[in-house]
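Hey, quick one: can you model this chain's 3D structure?
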Amino acid sequence: MAGKTVLLVDDEAGLTAVLAKRLASRGLTVKTAASGEEGLAVLRQDPDIALAVLDINMPGMDGLETLREAKALRPDVEALILTGYPSVEAALEGMRLGAYELLSKPIALEDLYTRVTEALARAAP
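Sure thing. Here's the predicted structure for all 125 residues.
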């Protein structure tokens, strides 16, 4: 997965820090952002980002809006949606916008790692 960076975008700083640390310990390069706006700024600055993991429920710009903007900026970027409140509507909208998968919180690290590596394998080289 060399040269492929994962961007975690979630307003829950504690969770984001833990996930970033755990994914990094498995050899992944991880960046974090605390909001959709911050995530888009990181995406604009780092051409190595291949995957964005987005929380749906964030203040300001939510995960679906962030996904829409991210795909407009970088159509090649893969995306996973995380939510503590899964709904069919959110899943369908996320898929329509180009998300690889919608995942429910809390998520086991093994499951997240598996989905992240699958999405990175799909990402453009």
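One thing worth noting: Residues 50 and 77 are 5 Å apart (CA to CA).
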